[in-house]
C-alpha cells in the first residue's frame, strides 16, 4: 500500500469518527479561563506514569509527548483511548459530585522509510464545561433576589500530522503540525425573583469559533551505558501561536422557566468580529534510564508563561505555569510463555503542576498520583492499556473551589496493523 493511500486512510478514519466526538469531562469552574482546560498530550501508558515521557519510548505504543520519539515505532500501530472522570467540587458552603467522559485520542503511525515514521492523531486540545450559580439582594427591594448563572461549554479539537526521523546514531528529530478548531460559548445569565413574580432571564452570550495551525518540535538522544542499559534525554518546544477566530456577542431574553430555555428575543452587539488568542511557547525537558522491555525510570519538567495571554486583545490575569512529572514502568519478563502475569507492564507516577490560573491572589496547583498497566492481547505486541489518577486541584482558602478527581483512562494499542491487514500473503 502506497504512502499516499495510507495517509488518506488515516484521515478518512478521523473524519468518519469525529462526528460523534464529545469533549465533556464534567463541570470544571476553572475551565472558564483562557481557552479552557488544556489537555495533557500523554496517551494512556504515559498518563499512568504521571504524564512523563519526553525522553523515553519503547516502540510498542505511541509516545505522543515528544514527536521525535515516534521514530522508535518501527511497525504500524493503531492507538485509541477514552477517558472518564468522577469529580467532587467543594466550596466553603457547598459541594457537588459530577461525572463525565470523552474520547481521549485516535492515533495511527507507520514507518515510511528505514529511519522515518509518520503519525496522525485526533484528540481534544482543550475542554470548557462549567456552571456557577450565585445570588444576592436587589438594591432598593429587600424582598427581591437576583440570581446569577455563569456557564460555558465547548472546546478545541486537534488534528495532527507528525514526522520523526533518526538523524544519526541515537539522535532523532520530530516535528508536528496541528490544526486546531472548535467553538466556545460563554454565558452570563441574570434574573430577579420576588415573592409575587419572577422576571424573565437576560443572558449575555459570547460565542467564539476558532481555527488555526500550531506547531511543535522535539529532539531526543539515546546513549548506551552498557549492555541492556540506556540513558535518554529529550526536549520538546511548542511554538507560540496566535490562534485566529471569529466572535459573536449579544443579549438574549429567555423565559423564567427552566422548562423553556430557548430564547425569544435577541439583541446583537457584534457579529463575525475577527481576532485571535495568544498561546504562549512551552518548553519541556525529560531524562530517563531504561533497560529495554524490562524497566524504565522517567522525569519531566515543563514551563509555560501565560502572563502575556490575550483574548481578542484583552489581557487576562494568568501567570506562568510549570509541571513536574515522575514515573516508571516494569515488565517482569516480556517473553514469558508459562506465566502471563510476567508479560504485563506495571506503571506508576506522580505529577505536580503550578497552573497559570490566578484567582484571589492565589495561584492554583494540581497534585496527583497515577497507576496503570498494559495487558498483552493476542499474539504480538498489542495491548489493553489502563491508567488511574487520583488528584486535587485548588483549595478552599480565599473563597476558591477545590476539585478532587478520580480519572480512568482506557486505551487499546494494536501493533502490526499494516503487516496483518494490508500485506498480501505470498506462496513460495
UniProtKB/TrEMBL annotation:
SUPFAM superfamilies membership: Porins
Domain of life: Bacteria
Name of this chain's protein: Aromatic hydrocarbon degradation protein
Organism for this UniProt entry: Rhodocytophaga aerolata
Amino acid at each position: 500500500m502506497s504512502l499516499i493511500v495510507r495517509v488518506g486512510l488515516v484521515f478518512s478514519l478521523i473524519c468518519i469518527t469525529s462526528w460523534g466526538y464529545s469533549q465533556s469531562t464534567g463541570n470544571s469552574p476553572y475551565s472558564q479561563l483562557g481557552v479552557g482546560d488544556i489537555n495533557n498530550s500523554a496517551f494512556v501508558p504515559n498518563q499512568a506514569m504521571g504524564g512523563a515521557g519526553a525522553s523515553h519510548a519503547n516502540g510498542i505504543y505511541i509516545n505522543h509527548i515528544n514527536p521525535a520519539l515516534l521514530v522508535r515505532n518501527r511497525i504500524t500501530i493503531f492507538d485509541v483511548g477514552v477517558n472518564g472522570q468522577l469529580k467532587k467540587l467543594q466550596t466553603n458552603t457547598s459541594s457537588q459530585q459530577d461525572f463525565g467522559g470523552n474520547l481521549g485520542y485516535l492515533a495511527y503511525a507507520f514507518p515510511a522509510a528505514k529511519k522515518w515514521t509518520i503519525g496522525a492523531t485526533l484528540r481534544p486540545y482543550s475542554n470548557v464545561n462549567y456552571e456557577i450559580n450565585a445570588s444576592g439582594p436587589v438594591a432598593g427591594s429587600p424582598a427581591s433576589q437576583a440570581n446569577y448563572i455563569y456557564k460555558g461549554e465547548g472546546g478545541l479539537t486537534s488534528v495532527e500530522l507528525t514526522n520523526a526521523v533518526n538523524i544519526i546514531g541515537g539522535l532523532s528529530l520530530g516535528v508536528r503540525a496541528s490544526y486546531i478548531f472548535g467553538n466556545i460559548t460563554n454565558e452570563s445569565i441574570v434574573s430577579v425573583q420576588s415573592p409575587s413574580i419572577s422576571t424573565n432571564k437576560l443572558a449575555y452570550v459570547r460565542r467564539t469559533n476558532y481555527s488555526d495551525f500550531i506547531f511543535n518540535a522535539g529532539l531526543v538522544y539515546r546513549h548506551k551505558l552498557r549492555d541492556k542499559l540506556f540513558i535518554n534525554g529529550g526536549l520538546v518546544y511548542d511554538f507560540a501561536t496566535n490562534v485566529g477566530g471569529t466572535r459573536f456577542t449579544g443579549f438574549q431574553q429567555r423565559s423564567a422557566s427552566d422548562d423553556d430555555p430557548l430564547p425569544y428575543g435577541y439583541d446583537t452587539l457584534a457579529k463575525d468580529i475577527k481576532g485571535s488568542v495568544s498561546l504562549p511557547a512551552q518548553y519541556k525537558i525529560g531524562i530517563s534510564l531504561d533497560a529495554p522491555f524490562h524497566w524504565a525510570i522517567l522525569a519531566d519538567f515543563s514551563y509555560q508563561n501565560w502572563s502575556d495571554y490575550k483574548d481578542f486583545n484583552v489581557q487576562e490575569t494568568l501567570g506562568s505555569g510549570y509541571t513536574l512529572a515522575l514515573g516508571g514502568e516494569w515488565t517482569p519478563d516480556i517473553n514469558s510463555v508459562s506465566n502471563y502475569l510476567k508479560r504485563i507492564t506495571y506503571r506508576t507516577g506522580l505529577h505536580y503542576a503550578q497552573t497559570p490560573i490566578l484567582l484571589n491572589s492565589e495561584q492554583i496547583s494540581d497534585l496527583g498520583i497515577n497507576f496503570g498497566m498494559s495487558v498483552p492481547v493476542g499474539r504480538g505486541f498489542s495491548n489493553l492499556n489502563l491508567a488511574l489518577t487520583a488528584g486535587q486541584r485548588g483549595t478552599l482558602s480565599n473563597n476558591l473551589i477545590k476539585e478532587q478527581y478520580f480519572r480512568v483512562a482506557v486505551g487499546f494499542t494494536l501493533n502490526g496493523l499494516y503487516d496483518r491487514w494490508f500485506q498480501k500473503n505470498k506462496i513460495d
